């Protein structure tokens, strides 16, 4: 048995540094914070620059206009996006919606690859890969129903709507998208209402495609959570290396050293789980579903802990609007609930690995 | 070399040395000489200079052929700690003398590091080694020495210069446990067994040729040993290898004991054990060609915590049966199996996992200081001559 590579290839490291440079340039944390006050001016330009370096088509095969890369590369991009809580629809459109369309011959896939269009899968962002899917009715060629708390709908111009008789691509102009005030405004959700909307059938068998897309999302969101956790750890360590109280650097106090050592241990473990999920997903490994749930069960809690530690160990400044730690806390807590809570993934694992209640 | 030529090499070896007719020791010695003992070791030292990941494939092929193994569980310290340290710091003569019988299990090793006054503060050892012509004469007391009752040799840390600060006056030796000055007394532990010992050294004579590394370099050599120890303690295998496998099997076998609360705890620990296994695999990929560094400490931290939580969970799961214990008789085991015996034994033995090989508190200090770069602990004795430190 050849072991999966859990490290990063040179190509992946190159991709990481170009994404990191771009984000350093284009995704200032102050601008991300302003989204909470309604200023979303950052979003379009940032997304366009990611599209310009080909990221929207990463998972799309070359013969369909994409880069033909794999989940491993997409995971590295997500690590970097997680480090800046970047408000872009990469996970929702370029990973989840794109994966849902991989078995369809729709031209929409090519359009997503080039960034010409942006799509979102119409399911509640909290839905686990094995969750009950929302009930949208098909009457004649008209779609009716409401899907709440959809991620990526605000950025999208087309929605993928699952019904009992197929997956439909529905233009956003044909539906009502009502933005919600959310805990994490860097991935703002919206309620989507279809009231006799028309759509184009893109796949006859919706359910497997939707589940596969949600599984890919769960597997790869772990890498976003990893990037977020690393930022929190590094930023907190750096702060405690300079912040002095009692005449000495705070990072020298053993109570804090031990907490950070434990967090480091968690982050290194999280890296293994996230890489494993990405690698199994990339290989189409039979273990990919188990790996996705392991990664979600582990990294969802890790990211929350990392962000909570970052706030606590910065003291008063960690509680301020000015310091970016809160962006990560809000993203981490939302990610924990997104695509199934850790508890939900554990129950799913119990069935998958024969450890039943 | 990838798996295919290596596989051919094993097959050729087995064709010449039929495991069913070849004497066990003869087989093991030939396997060493063929470079199939530990393939990541250099040619001529039982290896082929290959990546360490390939070893598991070799082991699998030998198991399939019904070949005798070198009983690695009986020589954990030899294989995991003494050997890599000898390989790194030993002279050609030392490597020739010690590595082969160590690998075949003809010579078992133990570790004479800890003392009553030098545990976490290992650099404080006071066992003295004095030069006498070509020999060293060693006296002092060691403690917690696992497997000393079975050992032919020991890796030994002793003080050669009390006028130097504590880290600088140490030297590392390879000590013959059959020397008349070595006395081994069993120390019973919480499991009832005496797996470890006190070892009294009285004018033990060690030839100069059994000094490992330079005089005064003992701390550096000992750290190489400790880094290897931490990684070998944390070593994982397949999914559900180790303690999680034992508990998962109990869970599957005993549905009548299930509760929702235990189910969630079990699944949490299952995830953690699996992630820890993957972390080990990832760390080994990182280290494939280098030496273990302080990152191994993080893995040992997780390993100890998970083993302790799992073994505690298993007793709760067993309920009434968890109140029982197999046997309190004092025995001196010839090997240690963390997952062996009964659930009560496993629970008690796992308590040692966060003490042996560096306590979890010390490992956290190591991670914080050497990996994260946080300031060191306040050390009042670091630069004093060792003999002036208050004892
Ligand atoms: C099962 C078992 C097998 C062993 N086998 C061997 C062996 O074969 N050979 C060998 O040489 N040794 C062996 N040891 C010894 C082991 O390495 C030591 O017990 C260990 O290093 C701790 O030393 P100590 O017992 O003196 O505890 P102490 O150092 O006295 O520690 C007491 C407590 O204080 C904490 N502490 C100490 N210093 C600090 C600090 N700076 N900051 C925070 N907390 C601190 C420790 O974590 C611990 O909780 C074994 C131990 C066990 C339990």
UniProtKB/TrEMBL annotation, chain A:
Annotated ranges, domain Acyl-CoA dehydrogenase/oxidase C-terminal: 210-346
InterPro entries assigned to the protein according to its UniProt record, in alphabetical order: AcylCo_DH-like_C, AcylCo_DH/oxidase_C, AcylCoA_DH/ox_N, AcylCoA_DH/ox_N_sf, AcylCoA_DH/oxidase_NM_dom_sf
Domain of life: Bacteria
Domain Acyl-CoA dehydrogenase/oxidase N-terminal, residue spans: 9-96
Spans traversing the lipid bilayer: none
Keyword annotations: FAD, Flavoprotein, Oxidoreductase
Cofactor(s) recorded in Swiss-Prot or TrEMBL: FAD
Family to which this protein belongs: Belongs to the acyl-CoA dehydrogenase family.
Identification of the protein by name: Acyl-CoA dehydrogenase
Organism: Nocardioides pocheonensis
UniProtKB/TrEMBL annotation, chain B:
UniProt GO molecular function: flavin adenine dinucleotide binding; oxidoreductase activity, acting on the CH-CH group of donors
Family label: Belongs to the acyl-CoA dehydrogenase family.
Domain Acyl-CoA dehydrogenase/oxidase C-terminal: 216-372
Keyword hit for Oxidoreductase: yes
Residue ranges of every copy of the Acyl-CoA oxidase/dehydrogenase middle domain listed in the record: 110-204
Protein name: Acyl-CoA dehydrogenase
Coiled-coil intervals, chain numbering: none
Names of required cofactors: FAD
Pfam families tied to this protein: Acyl-CoA_dh_1, Acyl-CoA_dh_M, Acyl-CoA_dh_N
């Amino acid at each position: 048995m050849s072991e999966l590579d859990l490290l990063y290839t040179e190509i992946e490291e190159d991709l990481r540094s170009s994404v990191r440079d771009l984000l350093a340039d284009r995704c200032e944390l102050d601008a991300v914070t302003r989204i909470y006050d309604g200023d979303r001016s950052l979003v379009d330009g940032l997304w366009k620059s990611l599209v310009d370096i080909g990221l929207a088509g990463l998972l799309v095969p070359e013969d369909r206009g994409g880069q033909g890369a794999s989940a491993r590369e997409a995971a590295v991009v997500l690590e970097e996006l997680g480090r800046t809580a970047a408000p872009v629809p990469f996970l929702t459109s370029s990973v989840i919606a794109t994966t849902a369309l991989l078995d369809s011959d729709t031209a929409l896939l090519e359009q997503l690859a080039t960034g010409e269009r942006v799509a979102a899968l119409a399911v509640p962002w909290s839905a686990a890969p094995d969750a009950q899917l929302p009930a949208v009715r098909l009457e004649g060629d008209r779609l009716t129903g409401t899907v709440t708390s959809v991620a990526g709908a605000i950025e999208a111009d087309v929605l993928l709507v699952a019904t009992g008789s197929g997956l439909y691509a529905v233009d956003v102009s044909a539906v009502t998208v009502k933005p919600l005030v959310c805990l994490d405004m860097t991935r703002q959700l919206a309620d989507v209402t279809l009231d006799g909307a028309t759509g184009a059938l893109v796949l006859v068998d919706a359910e497997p495609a939707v589940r596969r897309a949600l599984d890919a999302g769960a597997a790869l969101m772990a890498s976003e959570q990893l990037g977020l956790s690393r930022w929190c750890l590094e930023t907190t360590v750096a702060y405690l290396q300079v912040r002095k109280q009692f005449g000495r650097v705070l990072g020298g106090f053993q109570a804090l050293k031990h907490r950070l050592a434990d967090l480091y241990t968690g982050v290194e473990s999280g890296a293994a789980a996230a890489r494993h999920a990405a690698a199994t997903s990339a290989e189409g490994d039979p273990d990919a579903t188990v790996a996705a749930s392991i990664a979600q069960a582990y990294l969802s809690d890790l990211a929350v802990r990392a962000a909570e530690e970052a706030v606590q160990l910065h003291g008063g400044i960690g509680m301020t609007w000015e310091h970016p730690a809160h962006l990560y806390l809000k993203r981490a807590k939302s990610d924990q609930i997104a695509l199934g809570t850790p508890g939900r993934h554990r129950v799913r694992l119990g069935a998958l690995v024969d450890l039943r209640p | 070399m990838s798996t295919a030529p290596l596989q051919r090499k094993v097959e050729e070896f087995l064709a010449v040395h039929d495991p069913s007719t070849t004497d066990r020791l003869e087989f093991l010695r030939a396997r060493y000489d063929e470079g199939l003992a530990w393939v990541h070791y250099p040619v001529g030292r039982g290896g082929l200079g290959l990546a360490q990941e390939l070893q598991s494939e070799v082991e699998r092929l030998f198991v399939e052929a019904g070949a005798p193994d070198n009983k690695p569980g009986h020589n954990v310290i030899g294989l995991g700690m003494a050997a890599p340290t000898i390989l790194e710091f030993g002279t050609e003569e030392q490597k020739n003398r010690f590595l082969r019988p160590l690998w075949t299990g003809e010579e078992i090793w133990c570790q004479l590091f800890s003392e009553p006054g030098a545990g976490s503060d290992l650099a404080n050892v006071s066992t003295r080694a004095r030069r006498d012509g070509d020999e060293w004469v060693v006296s002092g007391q060691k403690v917690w020495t696992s497997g000393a009752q079975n050992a032919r040799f020991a890796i030994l840390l002793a003080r050669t210069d009390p006028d130097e600060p504590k880290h600088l006056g140490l030297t590392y030796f390879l000590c013959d446990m059959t020397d008349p000055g070595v006395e081994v007394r069993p120390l019973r532990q919480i499991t009832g067994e005496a797996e470890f010992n006190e070892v009294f050294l009285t004018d033990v004579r060690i030839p100069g040729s059994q000094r490992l590394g330079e005089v005064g370099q003992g701390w550096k050599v000992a750290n190489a040993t400790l880094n290897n120890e931490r990684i070998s303690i944390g070593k994982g295998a397949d999914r559900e290898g180790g303690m999680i496998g034992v508990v998962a099997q109990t869970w599957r076998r005993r549905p009548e004991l299930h509760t929702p609360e235990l189910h969630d705890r079990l699944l949490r620990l299952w995830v953690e054990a699996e992630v820890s296994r993957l972390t080990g695999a990832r760390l080994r990929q990182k280290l494939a060609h280098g030496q273990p560094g302080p990152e191994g400490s993080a893995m040992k931290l997780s390993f100890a915590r998970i083993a302790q939580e799992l073994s505690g969970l298993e007793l709760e799961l067993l309920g009434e049966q968890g109140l029982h214990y197999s046997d309190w008789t004092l025995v001196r085991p010839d090997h240690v199996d963390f997952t062996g015996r009964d659930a009560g034994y496993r629970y008690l033995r796992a308590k040692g996992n966060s003490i042996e090989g560096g306590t979890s508190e010390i490992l956290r200090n190591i991670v914080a200081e050497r990996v994260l770069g946080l300031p060191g602990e306040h050390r009042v004795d670091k630069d004093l001559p060792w003999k002036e430190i208050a004892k």
